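RECORD TYPE: inverse folding
INPUT: structure tokens
STRUCTURE:
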């Protein structure tokens, strides 16, 4: 049963990673940008093809499609000038000049040339470099400006008044405070601001209500018998013993009945269940499982998961998904879950003995594969049953069974009003 839950979450990430198989380096200007903000610097890890380089830092070469080794230095100088002079990074109000920490010229094998019928060798030729913007104390605010936007040769939008295609947008991944998020630079909005949140894992996760037991109506047999016996005796002997004796016996009988209330109780109905209260437990748990993978550090992912999942399931889920993310990073493509829409959920049962309940849920996972500056949307709809249990005073997911899953097209899911999934 636990493997079902692994398939749900890991399947969503695997679908994103699989999307990179067709997301090859595009036949036009493209760049991949990953940014990290640490306690000592802001670091840009940039890879771009020659198509992109010629648009933002053009050079004169003997053969436009080919870079001779003697021409590499000139291209590097122009790129350094562009990124250090025209792109700006401001840290806590102070503009910081970058330092080129590494620069690599990459020529891909010509066997891939058939993938690029438009630009050929210019798409196969890549430049990879790291720019560091150092500082002395952990930043509170970082402002980043990107200024190079070639035409988007894959755009399906009509030409503008100037007869040109729309400009590319740069979709970058930003890692800061242990969280990986998407940021977007565009010609119309070239500046991105980041502010330190100082948020803990608990601050970032949705709050889950405290467990409460399921109350089942019961009948206290001994107490009921005591009170019933007193009533019968009084009905028969009332006229003989008088009010004083009846009152005295009432005190003794009711005191005895009260003392015996905890004993010999038998259920006489179904547990009192507040379905909305239980769904208010399930929804944040479900969201927090996915939110745990916004983190990049292994320990943070595990800690965040442990707030929502328990037992062997926690170890299996963490190991499986983290392995998939590492493989994706090594392959140069990164899959990120961007949204989880819980469309429908209902409580299907409760177990007072284990203080647990089950939920049937339908939801859509939306995600993106980042590869060579392009994002490739993915949507998958899931149907599953969950078991949520009181685990040492905290609600946690302890079991799951996937009933179905279906990949959707990249277009937004639109359903008629009032229609369930």
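DESIGNED SEQUENCE:
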């Amino acid at each position: 049963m636990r493997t079902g839950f692994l398939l749900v979450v890991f399947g969503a990430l695997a679908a994103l990673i699989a999307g990179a198989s067709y997301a090859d380096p595009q036949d036009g200007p493209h760049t991949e940008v990953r940014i990290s903000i640490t306690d000592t610097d802001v670091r840009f890890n940039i890879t771009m093809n020659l198509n992109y380089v010629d648009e933002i830092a053009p050079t004169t070469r003997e053969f436009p499609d080919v870079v001779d080794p003697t021409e590499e230095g000139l291209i590097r100088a122009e790129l350094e000038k562009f990124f250090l002079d025209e792109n700006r990074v401001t840290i806590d109000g102070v503009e910081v000049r970058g330092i080129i920490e590494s620069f690599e010229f990459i020529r891909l094998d010509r066997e891939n040339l058939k993938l690029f019928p438009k630009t050929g060798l210019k798409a196969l030729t890549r430049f990879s470099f790291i720019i560091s913007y150092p500082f002395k104390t952990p930043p509170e605010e970082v402002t980043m400006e990107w200024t190079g936007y070639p035409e988007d040769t894959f755009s399906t939008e009509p030409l503008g008044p100037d007869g040109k295609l729309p400009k590319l947008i740069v979709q970058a991944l930003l890692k800061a405070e242990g969280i990986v998020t998407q940021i977007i630079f565009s010609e119309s909005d070239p500046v991105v601001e980041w502010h330190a949140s100082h948020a803990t894992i608990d601050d970032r996760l949705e709050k889950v209500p405290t467990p409460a037991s399921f109350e089942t109506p019961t009948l206290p047999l001994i107490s009921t018998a005591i009170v019933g016996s007193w009533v019968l005796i009084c009905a028969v002997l009332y006229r003989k013993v008088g009010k004083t004796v009846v009152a005295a016996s009432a005190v003794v009988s009711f005191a005895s009945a009260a003392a015996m209330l905890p004993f010999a109780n038998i259920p006489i109905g179904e547990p009192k269940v507040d379905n909305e209260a239980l769904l208010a437990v399930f929804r944040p748990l479900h969201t927090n499982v996915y939110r745990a993978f916004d983190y990049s550090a292994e320990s943070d992912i595990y800690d965040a998961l442990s707030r929502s999942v328990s037992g062997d399931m926690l170890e299996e889920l963490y190991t499986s998904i983290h392995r998939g993310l590492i493989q994706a990073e090594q392959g140069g493509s990164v899959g990120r879950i961007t949204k989880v829409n819980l469309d429908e959920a209902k409580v299907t049962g409760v177990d007072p003995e284990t203080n647990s309940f089950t939920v049937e849920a339908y939801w859509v996972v939306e995600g993106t594969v980042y590869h060579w500056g392009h994002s490739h949307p993915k949507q998958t709809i899931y149907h599953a049953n969950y078991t949520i249990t009181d685990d040492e005073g905290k609600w946690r997911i302890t079991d799951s069974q996937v009933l179905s899953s279906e990949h959707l097209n990249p277009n937004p899911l639109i359903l008629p009003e009032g229609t369930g999934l």
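NOTES: DSSP finds nine helices and 16 strands in the chain.
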